[in-house]
Each structure stands twice: as structure tokens, then as C-alpha cells.
PQQ-binding-like beta-propeller repeat protein
Amino acid sequence: MELRKTNTQLVLLALLTTLSSGCDDNAESTPKNTLEAINYGPLNNSVAIKPTTEEIALKDRLLVNGNTAALVTALDLSSHVPDSGIAPALYSLANNTSEKAITNQWKPSDIPTHIETINSESKGFYTLHSDTRNSDEVMSVTPPEMMMEWIADRNIISLEGGVFDQNSNIYTVPLDPVDDIYLVSINPDTGARRWHLPNKRIGQGGSPLILPSIKDDSNDIIYIGSYEYITAVDTQGNVIWDVETGLKAPENAQEFDVHNFGLNYHANTNSVIALYADGHMVAHDRDTGRAIMAPFSLPGSPATATDFKADYSKLTPLVENGLSKVFANSETFFGGLNIILGGGHEVANYFGIDNNTGRLFVAGTAPDEVDGHTDELSSYGALYAIDLTQIDGEANMSILWRKDFEGGTAATPTISFDGQRIYTADSVDNILAIDANSGELIWDFSTGSGQVIGSIAVSREGNEIYASTGTNIIKVLDMDVCAGDGFECNQAIWLADMESAYQSEVLQQSTPQAHIYTNVLKPAIEGFFRSGGNTEFNFEHKAGNMVLAGITANGITAQIGYGYISPLGKVLPFQISQVLFERETGKIRYIAPGVEESISVMAQAPNGNLYMSNSPLRRILNIGILRAVGVNAANDALKYFGMDILGGIAKYSQQPNQSIHYAKESAETLLNRITNLIDKLSGLSDEVINAEIARLAVPTTQFEMNLIKANNNGEINQAELDLGLMTHSIATVNNMTELKAAEEALQTWLAH
């Protein structure tokens, strides 16, 4: 996590605050405004609950160690029908993958010349989309031959997912949990619960924000929120402050009516900001929790509700049964389906902050009248640019510009590294590039794969853009006046090679999988949709994208599912896999079997491991359909099809006894960046060079960490470890004079 101020900046900030407050030296700096009083919440100065025994800490962890098939079989309900149950092995498709990850062809070719005012770059995800700009990019190296190691806290669901402190500890806020949990922290190595905060609240569930402590930047502070409260807690579970937001949830409000999408950091005012589904925004001082402004409300209206093109009312009792351990209210499930498609609410996603200017960018709905109908609903989406200014401690939000577009959006706005462009999407299939200063549309690009979901991943270098839809991932370059392949406008560089993830050819052969797909799944699914009025629906089996892409130091991370195309053009899966794509070509480098799907983010920690938040809305929808058909047809095989919902955080790490390969991957990543920097040194300022050298720290640390693991595993002996550690020492670059020696040392080590 790199969003931090230097000690000099902190001293200056403290001096400026003291001078502006006019207080005596021993008093707390208090803004001179009408918002002086702090209304504390019930958690203020409280302490988290820690498990009293290891057994309790691990009670909701499922140990997998790569044996996903055994876990799926154990959780499947087909055993209730011993003679005719449809076991997962009868319809699951094998992955296409090699023993080792295919070679990484992508190498950095640019050096970012922009220097941020406050560094937002990310070692691992410290906000919902990795950083304040929503780039979904991290500096860490993904395990090249990953496997699922465990699933922790299996009975909680977080749609936004977990984030990490500097030590890769996991923090997540469960959505509408059955148990009394506001925030939970998980050990990144074992999956044991470290602690949890009680006092669950309406509207909670958004991603935490993690920032370094002002007092000691080697420690972190976690910021979380619900509709009515914002809370700061340290990594040991000590609540620093818990304050009211000034908002009150309406009577009978459902979770998603007042959902908090997570907090973000506004460096210019040193405040943490929350955005809600009803269009409200609040801002609180990072250090004290004091509200720096009254709640702000966007001028939009609720979006027209999503037309699911199916009658899902028949599924309610069947879905409710499967949700009994993870959601307190089954309506939360259907609300989640609606909001991820951008319907029914004023805001359906997170927001971005540009630390260059302090400007906020929010995607929501346009005002009611924009669509030509005054009906308290909006069929137009809008991107808002909002300035947050503060004078004498009192802050104010004002809308600089608004860009309207037909249809809503399910895409969080992403800000370019230099802050000049905003990338978002409409409700059809277009990526939109918008001028950050004027709000003018610069270009649009049709994905040809349906609506973009989540945020658009944008690299800090090479003008690379990765857009995720409900079926695929598309890579394009921002070519200034258009998007394209670097040579021709409106041409993608690649569409990810989804179909090759599974051995789907068995569906064309005389196999159990072909029989189940053709004679069971196809008629059941077609019958359900056609009976609901979608008479033209045809069951088309397909591999497709499950969640937004993540940019890492050695590839593109994603999740793929195999199932069929829904009436809304998205893949509804029967099985899941985790994938590392080659960044240059879109080919699969490695694929690992999964257990449960996610609609969250590719949350990669500073240690390189992926920690996926299980949030199986689409798979459970599938299960509900098949079980409903089973009930209506008195077919026990369908009535007990599949496994119930599985929540928790799934850890993907390097396979056992493959740590030396992970060390080599880290060394190659480090070497490529050093060589690229050496080649371009003559044209760069010292400031730009030092910024790039700082980016080398993460793969350097991973190189050392995996060398030690390889020795502990018996993959390398002590002499080989000593040689590797000597290489690591030389490759630890502090200034430009050490680059050439680092390059030569890494080349020599890799050659051996």
C-alpha cells in the first residue's frame, strides 16, 4: 500500500492545521463550522472480539489444498438421491492447463513520466479497486501455478470483497450477515479469524479503506462504514473512533436501498468519503472522525429497475433455503442481482478520486427530467465530476460537470494515472473515455460482448485498458483520439481466450457430460425461461468471464465459469476456475479449478496471493432454477442439484514445492523492469527514475520470500539459497547507479 504522505508533508500538514484553527498548542484542532460536535456511535473506543481458541478461529475455514473436486462433491446435495442424483463429476468439465505456466511474453515498454501529488499506487488492494483511482492494478507478482488453499469464514458474503494491510492481513465487511458482524479480519496464511467487530448495521457491506497511520506509517488504520456510521479501527481491532454520518435509514429500508459501496480517501482535505446507493455522500476527517460537511446528495433519480427477462418469483423459497447461513434476509440476494446490473438505484457502484486535483468522479443516474419523463425514475446514466473544497475546516461539494448517457451503468469510473481521462461504460456495450476537465466524450469503443461490468482496469503504463463484460475480457489501447490496437481505431488487441479454459469438446462426444448437458440441463433451463414468457430462449453452453480483470506484474487475473448464456447475455455458471492470462496475447498462462464464483474484484495482496470473495449470485440463480423445475416435475435429481451457497474468502497461492518457480517469476519480472528503465534512463528526470525504482521493491521482496520458501520446502539447498540471497541483495536497488549491477546479477542467477 503506497498511499502515504512523507514525514515532511505530515509535519507541514500539522502546522497548517494548527495555524488555521487558532487553538492553543495543547488543544485538539477543531474546525470553525457548524459541524463541530462529534456524535459518537456505540462502538467508539471499543475493542474487537478475538477467538479464545484456535479451534474457534478456524471453525468456519475449509481446508482445500488444491483438492477442489473433493470439496465440491462433499458439499453437493446429490447424495440425498443415492440412486439417481446428479453428482458434479457427471457434468463438470476438466480444465485445459499445463503443469507449468506458459512463458510470460509481456514486458514493460514505457516508463510513466507523470508524478502524482500523493502516491496512490498499490502493492495490493487497499481499496475496492486497488487504489483511489480504481485502476485494478497492483505491483505484486501473481503465483504462476496457483491453487486454492483454503476458504475462510465460509458463512459470510461480501460483494465488494476484502482488502489488505501492509502485512497482507485481510479485512472484509459482510453483507447482511446472519451473525452479528460489522468487520472481520482474517489471517492471510492460515485462514483463521483474527478478530471481528460486532454491532452489524444496515447498509454495511462495502469495501474497507486502509491507510497508514499518521502517527506511525508502518502501521495501518482500517476505515469502514454503514449508512448511519463511519468507523476507524487499527489492525489489532481497537476502535479509534465510531461516528454518526448524519444519515438515517428510512423505515423498512432494504440493505441495498442504503448500501455503502466502500470508503475512499481525499488527500486534499485528509478525509474519508463514503458513497451510498441512494446518492448520498459523506466526508469525515481521517484522524478524528469529525464530519467536515453536511451529507451531500446527487441530483439523480433511481434507475429503472432491471428487466431480468424471466420470472424469478418461483425461485424465492428455493433460494431462501440456500441462503439460510449467509444472509439474514433473502431479499438481499435479489437486491444484489438488481444492483450489479445497474438497475433500481441512483448509484450502483464505487467512485474514484484523483489525487492530482482532489476531484471526485461518481457514476450514477441523471436527474429525472433528462430522459423526457418526470416519473421519479431515470433511464439515463451520468458521470459526475465533483469538487470538494474546504475553508476554515468547513467543506463543501459542488458539481463541476455532468455527462449524461442513455441507460445506466454498472461500471465504477476509472481515472487515468495522470488524471486527464475518466473511463466508464454505458448500459449497452460501450467503453467511454471522457475528458476529466470538461466532461466531453473523447471516444467510445464497442466491446461487442455486452455491458461492461465492475470497473475498467487501466494500467499506469502503455495506455493499456482491460474491459470486462459478462462473457469476455477485451484489451485495447487508448490511442488519444480513439481506442484500438495501436494501429487501427476500434480494433481490439485481443479478446481473452475463454473457451480454451475447459475441455468442452467432451460435450460433442458420447460422455456423461454430454448426456447431462443435452438431456437434463438444456430442457430444464429452456423450459424455465420459455414458461416465463421468453419463448425464443435457447440453451447455449459456453465459457465466460465472471468478474472484472485485474492487472498484475506478470499477467491479467480473472475468473472464468462454464455454463450457458442467460437472456441478459451473461454466462450463468455451473463451475468456476481461476485464471492467469498472458498480458501480451490474451492466452491462458495457467488455470486453477475453483469452487465458488465471485462478483467482486481480483483482490491480490502485497504477498502476491489472491483472496477471492465468494459471492455466488449467478450460480445460486442457476441452482434455484433447476431445483424449481425439480419441484414442479417431482424430479428428485433436479430438486437436489448442486451445492448451496458458499461464502467466505478463498485463498489462491502457489502450489506446494513450486516456490522456486515463483522466485524465478519474481526475478524475471524484476529484471524486465530494470532493463526497461536502463534503456530509457537518458530521457528521464531524476524524479521519474526514483518513482520507477520504488516500484521495484514489491517483486524484489517476493523474490526473497519465495527463495526462503523454496529452501524450507527442500526445493533448493543451503548453497543455492545463499546464492539466491546474494543475488537478491545486489538486485535491491536504491538509486540509479545500482541498476546495471542488479541487471547483471539477475541475468546470471536466472541463467543458472
